[in-house]
Amino acid sequence: LFEQAERDAPEAFTTHANRVVWLQDLGRHAEAVEACNRALARRPGAALLLNNRGVSRLSLGDEDGARLDFEAALALAPEPGLARFVRANLARLDPPDSRVVEAHRLLCEGVRLAQEERPRQAIPLLLESLDLDSERAEAWIFLALAYRAERLWEQGAEALAEALRLQPENAEALGERALALLALGRHEEALDHARLAVGLRPDDAGLTCNLGLVQLERGALEEAAEVFRRAGELDPADPIVALCLKELRKRRRKD
Q1: Chain-centre distance of CA 146, in angstroms?
Q2: Is pLDDT of 162 > 90?
């Protein structure tokens, strides 16, 4: 079917992108790399495809090629969920030091549990990983996300502070810490973090929406309205923006 689709519409990006996933599911990674190459020729800025090509290259033993793909995918500033997957894949390429290997194993297992919405089981593994190697910003971010799922805001804010110690300009960590600080009632600190995050990634609707939420909770309704309007322009289909605007209207009525 894919071969027929390629004959019928050889320039269709979606056909090549879907064929990549199908080939990877079958374990046909050499063909998957070729399919990724064809799809990326049509859309070079597709971070998901770069990640997928990296996965297939890694399966074929091409660690250098895989690393280049994962790093290129991250350089495109993908949405946070995809960025976490790419960072987890990149972590698989660490050098074979015994402590690092064990830290990596624990990190991957903790990430898997967190992605399966089992944060309570993920947290001890992520902490154990960080005991072995505390210099991984992505591990601190995953830990913070697990804490957030458990509504442990103080611990999440502390974990994100460690991530930012290692990567001060990590927009995702800044945005997440803004939300944790907001939950703790530390509104001015949250505002500083949210503004920094948006300054680093001004085209990110999610980070922009975070800034609007902080303004909303501070009672700065007009500022919040302007920020939500900008977030809606960046991603008109984002359901979170719609919910935020609904809450804004409710608060305006109360005022």
Answers
A1: 14
A2: yes
What is residue 3's predicted lDDT score, i.e. its pLDDT?
53
**Size (the chain), residues:** 255
Instruction: Please give the pLDDT value at position 249.
Output: 86
Measured in degrees and rounded to the nearest 5, phi and psi for residue 203 equal -95, 10
Q: Assign residue 10 a region (left: φ > 0; alpha: ψ between -120 and 50; beta: otherwise).
A: alpha
For the stretch 8-48, pLDDT in tens is: 444 555 666 788 888 888 999 999 999 899 888 888 889 99
Nearest Cα neighbor of 130 from 159, 92, 155, 172 is 159
Torsions phi, psi of 187, nearest 5? -65, -40
**CA nearest to 144, candidates 131, 162, 132:** 162
CA dist., res. 134 & res. 136, Å (int): 6
CA distance 25 to 132: 33
CA distances 198 to 3, 26, 177, 189, Å, are: 43, 41, 13, 15
Per residue in 94-137, pLDDT tens?
Answer: 665 777 888 888 999 999 999 899 999 999 999 999 988 999 99
Sign for the CA dihedral angle at 197, 203, 207, 213 comes to positive
Burial tier of 221 (Cβ tally within 10 Å: 0-12, 13-18, 19+): middle
> Is the dihedral angle over the CA atoms 53, 56, 58, 60 positive or is it negative?
negative
